[in-house]
Specification:
alpha/beta, Rossmann fold, 8-stranded mixed sheet, 6-stranded parallel sheet, 26 strands, 21% strand
Length: 579
Amino acid sequence: MLTLRPYQQAAITSIYGYFQNSTGNPLVVIPTAGGKSLVMASFIEGVLKAWPDQRILVVTHVRELIAQNHAEMIGLWPEAPAGIYSAGLGKREAQARVLFAGIQSVHARAAEIGHTDLVMIDEAHLIPGKSNTMYRRFLDALSAINPALKVIGLTATPFRLDSGMLHEGKNALFTDIAYEAPVRDLIDQGYLSPLISKQPETRFDVSNVGTRAGEYIARDLAAAVDHDAITRAAVAEIIAHGQNRESWLVFCSGVEHARHVAEEFRRREITCATIFGDTPKDERDAIIAAFKRGKIRALASMGVLTTGFNAPAVDLIALLRPTKSAGLYVQMVGRGTRLSPGKENCLVLDFAGNVRRHGPIDLVRPRRPGDGNGREAPTKVCPECDSIIALSATECPDCGYEFPAREVKIAPTAATLPVLSPKKAEWIPVHGISYDRHDKRGGLPSLRVTYICGLKNHSEWICFEHQGYARRKAAEWWRKRAPDLPVPLSVDEALLQAHRLARPSDISIRPSGRFFEITGYRFAPCTNPTPASAPSATGNLAALAGSTGTLPARTPGAMSAANSFAAAPAKTSATGGKV
């Protein structure tokens, strides 16, 4: 029987927990190569085995993802009543109870698809922010058929270039993040391949390239980057660094640029092919198959291979495309995080300055666009609770996060910028623990938890009285320590029950500027709550399937399966810091 990874189980648990307490459209954030397809398949199996009359639609925009998600469903549950609706795949099985569809094929066919209870959108970050789009019109039409329709988005990057976080803004389709698995945690736990980087000598100068809609103007970018001398130098460095690496992926700044890069590889006797958005289907499939078999060593692309592309052996990524999109940067680098036999890590060569522009991929924070037409106020975003606060603030008024002191540094002339934050977590024993109320003027109170660890203490702030993501993370923290106790609604209520909480035997910490952040917990066997098992034929999703938005009350002496999911820990290794 298939056993889900802890974070995959936690994602499913969090979906049930979300619909027990909320009525919006949640996001589930799992890094590239983290197994979103399996999470969807396992969740769908659990829903349909408990409520066979439910109708579920899985929508995405890439033909390869449609086939991949369907194959994952059949592999997990061979008898699943699943079908495909995709012109690219030549199938239109509109009446399947679980339908995997391409948005291009179904956007005008809501009436043909008919009554739907749940829509799961893969690669949700690609839904445009505007209200009048293909996705929005389709969902509106499905909602007209079933006003109780629920929508869940899945993505590795919960933000887009033009409008910030997917669940923020007046046109936001999604309302909250129900669960997020940090990429650093998955790498540290061995579920994803580590990323390393080396600073290449060749660097692109895009200082004079214009910007439109928050991104470099494509034509001007290609003109600035696509020069023979630069291409020759970059390709030479890629070959030098890739001598002991087998599978290279190169992201380029334009179609002609990719062709010139491929020509230079071939001139140096390295097999290289190109793939673009208009590459014919059969040709594209043949190229990717040859690349996966190792017959082609390098792929040069423009505008594709950032989503729906699954080549685990990729162990070198060359970024020849500067971008101001944090999401695109994370998606490009994420192509190298899949595990593969014999692969120790993936080397990222950033000729485009993207690591310097956006930071390590596990620390990327999207910019929030301004609401007004004037100049934006000097603000910054708290990395723990996402509050937007004054740039000069040294402490977050909402959760108590202390910002590292600003340091004045001379810009280095030759530095290696890590594509993954180099902070290594360290496990330390906990000798004691204390709880107290933390009040900030102008903000909501939080529970300050102080771990006594020898000569040094470490603290975190738990935000029970906040809303949205901060509240759900606080609930996850509580359930890890007291799965049988209701999650407190206030700090004072939490303090009354604090003596009943299981105490971690160890915590993991890693440097964060001048301070340390708590990144994980270990519990002694005698105090560690029993983890929830993977839902398959159980669960109660009345809030998902019905129109009341509530779950049935608990019966004496028993708890409904969904309520047990909601009470189960949503993470096995909670993200540290202010929850």
